[in-house]
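Q: Okay, next protein. This is Glutathione import ATP-binding protein GsiA from Ruegeria arenilitoris. I've checked the sequence twice, so it should be correct. Can you predict the 3D structure?
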Amino acid sequence: MLDQPIAQIRELRVEFQTKDGPVVGVEDVSFEVRPGETVCIVGESGSGKSVSSLSLMRLVEFGGGEIAGGQLIFDRTDGTELDLAKTDQDLMKQIRGNEIGMIFQEPMTALNPVFTVGRQLTEGLRIHKDMSKSQAEARALELLKQVRIPEPERRLKQYPHELSGGMRQRVVIAMAMACEPRLLIADEPTTALDVTIQAEILALMDRLKRETGTAVMFITHDMAVVAQMADRVVVMYRGNKVEEGTVTEIFENPQHDYTKALLAAVPKLGEMRGKSAPEPMKLLGVEGQKIAPIPGTEEVLLSVRNLTTRFPVKGGILRRTISNVHAVEDVSFTLNRGQTLSLVGESGCGKSSAGRSILRLIEPMAGEISLDGVDIMKLDQKGLCKARLDMQMIFQDPFASLNPQMQLVDQVAEPMRNYGVASGSELQDRVAQLFDKVHLPRSFMRRFPHEMSGGQRQRIAIARALALNPKLIIADEAVSALDVSVQAQVLNLMMELQSELGLSYLFISHDMAVVERVSHHVGVMYLGRIVELGPRARVFENPQHPYTQALMKAVPIADPNQRKSEKDLNFKPIPSPIHPIGYEPAPSEYREVEPGHFILTTDSGY
């Protein structure tokens, strides 16, 4: 039978044992995956979508879970059916990697740091396919070519830490595809990647699926990726399946309230056309929303001129500086009071380095930074400390930027204590007001960071950044690690605070749809330079630089009727930003294409 499902999950129930008794991770979930089709499983963190895939691989036991009920029927290569829930681990070893491949969410932890890429790719082939060393190496090379890794011969001898995130993820895909499994499980394989690399990897998985007839179970919380990839969609919420249907049914006629809310929370590229100023999103089920545009003012708060930051690369026996990484190269822009300027670009384009250089968390090599009339570059340590009252930062990973041993009340109060802004009962009142501002209950003040979800931790980071009433907040990928619905709430919160307190944001991101939603002005960065800069409407509706046009093309759209094909994506490999000592790049020169809209005329390498 051709349409016989490859995997059927029937009434699966998974429990985790905790001190307070069993916790149900997945409750009564059933769906199936057929040959050559992609089933996307969607939901927020904690909805049980990864638990169901780990159960199918029987890896959930290693994470403290147990399959408490249900069947996992798998149709093997030889035509026999097997209930994986009752299979012993020895037989599972033969099935894992050989008949079911898995791509994990975090490529750095999925690869072994002490073995070369070649060794890790050939291991499965030699165990499952009884290949000789040379046969396995030839197949490994072929796999790397299939996933379009440049210079594949060299990569086989390299270690995982020598590859970028996107490259590592391709190696993980190649490993999962090595033995040509019947079923491929992909757990959020593109969450941490840039738009351009994500677009390439999605197109690659789609092509491999068509060529090999593999069935794909794709787990994600990104609705635009679902629209791009899925044939059928399963929506999960709190361990239960709440809706299932074809991709068109789910997007055009969602039935369950949760699915409707999920779709409403996705910022869509092009939603802001014809609007002069950013405005918060309309979310379903949230009462009392103030949806008003945020015009900001025309008064300049921050002005950056010719900012250049380079990092030395040391080598040789004497550890001398042999070359420099040109992270930020001759960047200039201004940011008005009460407005948002976004810097967009791929990983490694220098946007985070630019943000940190402005706060002098890393020392720039040259340039002028003026914040509200204060020359930041001329300040000594004491003066800089005082200037930081006016400028604060929200980091990308809220868990890493909070102290795990301090209660939240102390973390938010700490900046005010350090600067002697408030003390005693006044301090407690200020902290309580900040919790109200970021919409967190005051009962959370005695909690620790590990007791909060990702979105709640990010709110604490925002409250802490607001504690000193700064004029400028630099938000470095502040929402990139959050679920769609949480991301929408945090973005709305940031915009509400902007209109209420007149804050200016320097918003660093690689998500074009989010940037379109929040920005007044946009700067597109590539290899350390701003290649295009202008009002949001102009940059998005009339992109002039070839790199900006390529970026716009790569953004997946949350509409199954507007899928991208691989031929739409023609990215050039990014040249190296490392140059020998004594190399002096040409200064950045711009041409004004429309009033206030500039593009770089110096050769940017794209």
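A: Here is a summary of the prediction. The radius of gyration is 25 Å. The CA atoms of residues 223 and 558 lie 6 Å apart.
Q: Noted. On to the next one.
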